Amino acid sequence: MHCLWCDEEIIPSVNWGNLLLPSRPASLCEKCESELEQIEGDRCRKCSRKTAEVVCRDCQWWESQKRNVLAGNYSVYTYNAFMREIIAKWKYRGDYILRNVFAEVFTEGYYQAFGKKKDAIIIPIPLSENRLKERGFNQAEALAAFLPNQSKSLLARIDSEKQSKKSRKQRITRKNPFTLKETLNKPAILVDDIYTTGTTIRHAAELLKQNGCPEVYSYTLIRG
Amino acid sequence: MVVPLNRQELMDLAKNVTGKLLLRQEIPLSAFHFTQAVEQKFIRAVPSFTKKHFTLQCNRCGNNEKRLMAQYPCSICNKTHSYCRKCIAMGRVSECTMLYEWSGPVPEWKIHADPCTWKGTLTEAQQKAADRIASAVVNKEKELLSWAVCGAGKTEMLFPAITIALKQGKRICLATPRADVVRELQPRIQQAFSDVTVQALYGGSKDKKGTAQLILATTHQLLRFKQAFDVMIIDEIDAFPFHAEPSLSFAAERAIKLDSTTIYLTATPRKQQLKRIRNNLLPHIFVPRRFHSYPLPVPQMKQVSQLKSQLKKKELPPSFLKWLLIRKHPQRQILVFVPTVSLADHLSVPLTDLLISYDIITSKQQASTVHASDGDREEKVQSFRDRDLFMLLTTTILERGVTFPSVDVIILDAGHHVFDQAAIVQIAGRAGRSTDDPFGDVLLFHDGKTEAMVEAVESIRKMNKRGGFA
Ligand SMILES: [Zn+2]
Ligand SMILES: [Zn+2]
Ligand SMILES: [Zn+2]
């Protein structure tokens, strides 16, 4: 095996612990692996941001709004410089196989946060048609494929270019960029690569809830 | 209504696309104009992969290593496609993308009456080599290796060949493995051919079009070209990454026209080139003398027992301290090479303190450390050139391509494997570069002679001998 990032050869270490049960081959070498930063210690209960507060300021603000549509977000990595580089190559250059770098941690994190939600449906955040054409794959779908629960592509995204052709007023009111293909009466877990302000994910959550979905969570690789 | 391309637009397009192998998004045409250009057979699609037995080969970079091919589920075709990871930084080549080349009328390059504006003169040794290189171009010889010692003035030796090629309306590329060398060459070449359009292509260059008659490029940039050049000059063929990276020689070979001449430049040919020379498979011209006609400085080896552990303890060898005190030319700046970034960082403070305590420098600001990922690299090199810095501690990134007028050169832990024969010859070649100070000390501190060190010293002696120095 060679490291998926730096192409250095990975020499698997054999010890008494893994002699009989060889571990899954690593996709990153030790050095690259150590540059990824998982979220550990205190985090906001609502959005996974690293903070000493139980609920961070942003989430307190969201809770004060009438549209408090997202039950919570959980993320596994911070958005450090190395992660930015990996995401850029994976998502924008289209180096699909880099997805494997996240497989183990992303799956484990899911069991930790959502393991008990056995009937929840996973909904990857869609790309617009143009974006999808450019990249050839949707990174959110690629991540959702790692997870054990059933995944359904219930949302569609209106092209931002088409949206920008609309009047200025309409843009300022920030129309919901998503449409719903089918209603859902089970809990939903939205999946995406990154949670930054939470606005996009809340648009999706709002639409689902307005149409009868009882509870919406989000699971994202990175808390930006 | 969409208007078809007019004649001028078509000619611009031809200049833009000819001699290249591009992805759709690299061709600046709307969907309508692109379809039209393909229908009119101005642009031709080429498959992105070649299937050979059970392996795929990327037609852009030549990669056929399995581990650098991967797959993705394509949402457009609902199929799984292979794609090339090796050249993905230039846009993804996959089974559902095509590569495109120009197949319309071939644009002609300008015939220049008198393009060379360089007013200097060549030394006898330079002139001899320059004539040989020019005749290779005129006679459309396939290959020629110019083996010129460090400091021979190899760039000027190319001017007659470039001149004659421009007079014949040929297209020329001067490629080198390293971006900083491209940046250094650009003003010099532009000055020497001031009325000719010169474009420089490298990773961060603003101009990426590559439409000029005279192109300077990193060897990586050649991955976008196909049958483009009548004259290809590859500088420093023995340098990293060119000599170790098969996709780069693949690209260089594809970038030349069928009837073209390739000139290789090196001061330190590798075994593979020496072997081809010995077997008369590669014609070559040897330039044994530096432009100032003094011999190459021969490195002195200084054995220091336990050197590695001493350096780890931040102790500098006693023989080095002694040399510092009795240097014959204390006005010379000091260039110190170490094998790794971590050792450079480790020794930076103790070395600076030592120079201050010996009154060689008066303040910490006169010493600095530089390595490959140093953001201030160019500025530090410049202030060493301007003598604002007196001592520069560096990794092998400064082994070649940089010229300082008057330095003594030190290697600490010269036995480390990064200092192969070529590296040591190149490092020694940093000394004695100017007519005002054609000499310089070169000291190799080591704790065990390596073959590389012995061979480097031997080959320098041999080159001096061939240059007529006893
Ligand atoms: Zn790695
Ligand atoms: Zn929060
Ligand atoms: Zn390739």
From TrEMBL, chain A:
InterPro entries: ComF/GntX_DNA_util-trans, PRTase-like, PRTase_dom. It comes from the Bacteria. Residues 137-223 form the Phosphoribosyltransferase domain. SUPFAM superfamilies: PRTase-like. CDD domains: PRTases_typeI (cd06223). Belongs to the ComF/GntX family. This is ComF family protein. It comes from Oceanobacillus jordanicus.
Automatic annotation (TrEMBL), chain B:
Gene3D superfamilies: P-loop containing nucleotide triphosphate hydrolases. Residues 303-470 form the Helicase C-terminal domain. InterPro entries: Helicase/UvrB_N, Helicase_ATP-bd, Helicase_C-like, P-loop_NTPase. The keyword ATP-binding applies. Keywords: ATP-binding, DNA-binding, Helicase, Hydrolase, Nucleotide-binding. GO terms for molecular function: 3'-5' DNA helicase activity; ATP binding; DNA binding; hydrolase activity. Pfam families: Helicase_C, ResIII. Residues 135-287 form the Helicase ATP-binding domain. One of its GO terms (biological process) is double-strand break repair. PROSITE patterns: HELICASE_ATP_BIND_1, HELICASE_CTER. This is DEAD/DEAH box helicase family protein. It comes from Oceanobacillus jordanicus.
